[in-house]
Amino acid sequence: MDDRKTLVAYFSCTNHTQDLAKEIAEAVGGTLFEIKTVHDYPESYAGKIAVGGKEKLTGTRPEILNTVADMDTYDTIMVGFPVWFSTCPMAIVSFLEEYDLTGKTIYPFYTSGGGSGSRAIRDIEKAAPYADVMMCYNASKYGTSALEQWME
Prior knowledge:
Blueprint lengths: L5 E5 L5 H13 L2 E4 L10 H14 L17 E7 L7 H8 L7 E7 L8 H8 L4 E2 L3 E2 H4 L4 H4 L2
């Protein structure tokens, strides 16, 4: 990347997104930030999906435990998440809505066991209406091999 300051924020429930976020942060020279919710999700994958589905259906924004103190210093935000119901978890929406992201560029990346993140851009654009949201990157499929092409 050029001289822009990059934040690589991620929400991960099974460590798969976390592992890829770490690789991406290293590849782009970004600062890594884990998005944590105040309340933990259930341990089981089915439980996580059940809670995530209920949040999505009701529009519930889970409270985020931690914040990026110097968000205004970042030009680029790469935000990673597992695909739930063809979109990002509501924790991502909560995180993005916490900040004024006007003029920032957001690069969403997702992990998936086979589902598509087809609705994620729409939901991210709603959460960060004054940011420039780029197309989603399927990190499960491409890893870090196609990052440069994605970010052009």
